[in-house]
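Posting for a labmate who doesn't have an account.
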Amino acid sequence: MSELRKPIDDVGPGDEAGSWLLPQIRIEHIWLSIPVVLVVCFGFLLKLRLIDFWWHLKAGEIIVNTRSIPKTDLFSFTSTGQPFILQNWLVEVIYYATYRIGGLALLVFLNAMLLVAALLPVYNLCRQATNKIRLCAIIALLPAVLLLYFGSVRSQVFSFALFSVFYWVLSNFRQGKSDRLWLLPLLMILWVNLHGAFVLGLGLIVIFLGCELLRRIAQGEGPETLSFGRLTRLSLFLVLAVIATIVNPEVHRIYAYVRAVATNPASQTLVLEWQPPRINEAVGIVLFYGPFFITWLTLLGATRKPDLVDLVLVLTFSVLGLSALRNGVWFAMIAAPMVARYYPTIDFSPLTRSIQRFALGQRLAGWLVARGKNAAPIRYRLNRQIAVLLLTIVVLVSPWIYPKLGNPAFGNTLWEKSTPVSAMDYIEQNGLKGNIYHPQIYGDYLIWRLWPLQRSFVDGRVHLFDNSVIRDYRLAFIDPHWDERLAWYDIKYLLLSKEEEENRAMIESARNGGVWNVLYEDATSILFDRVNDN
């Protein structure tokens, strides 16, 4: 019997069985809420990153104001006029419209809700896989942590939510619990205009369809295989989903764009997320290898034999996860329901059980046995108090409240501390014109604050820039003759980060070289101009 449906045996003193505000909250409800509350709270606390957000906001402003999607680069002086596909144009419109309505706080709120939308379908599949409430909640922390790590405000978060829904629709269809395949082509029309990971949605359908066809061929018609009619229906919606992907401004050319971005060498060099996870680093262990080993050990140790769909899904997303750190989130999302399904079937050896009993101690073991036989009284009042406490925490960390609290642990702004707000204020107020050399992390915010007065050298759109630009950008930080290297770009200003290690040598060289003059400096950044340009 499900833990949520156990009969009420007792009610503690003063614990009336409900109230008009929070009726009959059980401890199982509290457990189930933990992953969701975690995602909401930490989603609210995620700072607006310097990379891969601000330029999207500016692009949204341009699209809304001009009612057209730019086809060439407008934002950099190193690639001006180069063909550039704004594949995320719908995200950019949503971001700017949200910003116009409620400012940055509403954007942070929207992002947190998208993270919840990404967690809930996977969480529901975990819940379907096991009736062990606490185990389900603990396993759901696996995708929750990954979603939060990669879940800052950016277009990829929309893909998290849509990928999760696709997985939920296909899993429920395969298990015969519901048939919502009609959602897939409709959602695909949105997805292809939101983010390039729409190809993963097609991949999910192909995996489910291909594996079920193989099962049908190998086993014939039976209770564990999909009928011919259902296989035909799944094939039809795969075709419709593929057709839906061409409903975008680039039509079929969108596939070439996605491939170019995914294989771009500059992205893999400059962006940590595009690099393979490293097993000797904490980030690689937490974001991929931890979930990877948990999943595979569960599948190998389970007495229930994993079916073909589960094996192919795990193998496919294991390969993706090994290829790039950013793909770990997809692995965690597909793996969590499998861990919930197969973990309870693991047959722990008598030796392992003996060690567990010894570690717990006889008294604790006896308490657990007694608790299993005689359920503790249900404390509705205590559970309501816990629920109120969780709701209070959610409100306090909301983007409208915590910046006003001035808590050093959270910070008093919605953006990263290293954001060069004051330096951009100085440039804007003084109307400085001329090419600026700056670290890549400043490029996106420069676009948002200063375009069209200023344009970036490089920014978060690393796949846009020519290899020679990326080479000069990287070498300038380590070349003793960096000034000569940058002369080709007619650089009039240096805006450097005092927090970035690679910037420090250039800062010292500029201070002492006699060619550059300090215009502005604060704890975060420093702005130079050429002495002979004054």
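Reply:
Got it, the structure tokens are right above this. Residues 155-262 form one domain.
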